[in-house]
């Protein structure tokens, strides 16, 4: 299908269907909608179950889309699906593999309606891997993410947000666009397990090539760079990320620390370096250190709460209908996203 690109964003003219629920799939297609794609959310008669979580939860993942109710278990629903597929560039679905096949949401089934349709299956472990539950937290536990997070003396820890779902959604959007650009239809697979293992890139490489089994580090410390972790200060915590000798020279001069001039020496004498840095940072607050180190080019930030972070970046808070939401992180020259409201269930049935 030839892409039509009228004004309205870099993805204007791209038509995407979504059969998704909760987070990963809807996040992927919302990112596309923010860039101008026309996204039609195909919902069962009762709607995406995320509508039951809260109105703001649903809005945060579904702004700017259309909503069409289809019962895909019926011949009528399948016929209507075929009509939508015939005029679309891609379909993204995140359901269990058995449901994807049962509802005919694969390229092999839909190519009869549109030879160039791109079908993206976003699953937990792959289309051929069965229906084992694959919620975000389960995948973080299964892929080693939880085991790497938290204090070494404490239990494994999960991040405070859905990192696996969000990461898989972004990856699925990339795969969808890549296949559209190829000009060929076909099946694309993205699964949460593979995405999270891929994101453990240098940790996995160290184990696979050097036999270095990753360990949890105190205060979230980096396995290679020193000092690069969270530090307590006179008031609050500071994230300090010294990745090369130039950063260390500038930081050490400001903090009154001598020696340890090379990355190799700092890594070899990690405990000594950390102790000196901890002692120096107690002389000021986290906010004070941030204001002192930023002009020097040293990567440092006071640990903020989400409300504090949003207050510090008011330009990222946008309105979509009745909701205040976080803007797209993708900025394209000449394109100002139109943040439409989330659709009412079945709002575009006709």
Automatic annotation (TrEMBL):
InterPro entries: CoA-transferase_III_domain (IPR050483), CoA-Trfase_fam_III (IPR003673), CoA-Trfase_III_dom3_sf (IPR044855), CoA-Trfase_III_dom_1_sf (IPR023606). SUPFAM superfamilies: CoA-transferase family III (CaiB/BaiF). Signal peptide: none annotated. It comes from the Bacteria. Keywords: Transferase. GO terms for molecular function: CoA-transferase activity. The keyword Transferase applies. This is CoA transferase. It comes from Actinomadura barringtoniae.
């Amino acid at each position: 299908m030839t892409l039509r690109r009228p004004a309205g964003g870099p993805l204007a003219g791209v038509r995407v269907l979504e059969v998704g629920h909760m987070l990963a799939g809807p996040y992927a297609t919302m990112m596309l909608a923010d860039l101008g794609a026309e996204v039609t959310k195909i919902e069962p008669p009762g709607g995406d179950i995320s509508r039951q979580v809260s109105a703001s939860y649903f809005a945060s993942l579904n702004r700017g889309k259309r909503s069409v109710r289809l019962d895909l278990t019926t011949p009528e629903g399948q016929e209507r699906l075929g009509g939508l597929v015939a005029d679309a560039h891609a379909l993204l679905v995140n359901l269990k593999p058995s449901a994807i096949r049962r509802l005919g949401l694969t390229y092999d089934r839909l190519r009869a309606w549109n030879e160039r349709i791109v079908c993206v299956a976003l699953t937990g472990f792959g289309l051929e891997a069965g229906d084992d539950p694959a919620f975000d937290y389960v995948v973080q536990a299964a892929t080693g993410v939880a085991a790497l997070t938290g204090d070494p003396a404490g239990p494994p820890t999960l991040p405070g947000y859905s990192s696996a779902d969000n990461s898989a959604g972004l990856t699925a959007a990339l795969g969808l666009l890549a296949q559209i650009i190829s000009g060929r239809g076909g099946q694309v697979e993205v699964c949460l397990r593979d995405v999270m293992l891929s994101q453990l890139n240098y940790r996995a490489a160290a184990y696979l090539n050097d036999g270095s089994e990753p360990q949890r580090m105190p205060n979230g410390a980096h396995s290679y760079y020193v000092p690069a972790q969270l530090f307590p200060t006179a008031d609050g915590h500071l994230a300090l990320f010294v990745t090369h000798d130039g950063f260390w020279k500038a930081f050490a001069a400001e903090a009154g620390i001598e020696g340890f001039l090379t990355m190799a020496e700092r890594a070899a004498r990690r405990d000594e370096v950390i102790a000196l840095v901890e002692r120096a940072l107690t002389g000021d607050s986290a906010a004070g250190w941030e204001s002192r180190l930023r002009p020097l080019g040293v990567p440092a930030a006071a640990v903020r709460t989400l409300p504090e972070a949003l207050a510090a970046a008011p330009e990222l808070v946008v309105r979509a209908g009745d909701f205040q939401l976080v803007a797209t992180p993708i900025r394209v020259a000449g394109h100002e996203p139109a943040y439409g409201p989330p659709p009412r269930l079945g709002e575009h049935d006709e």
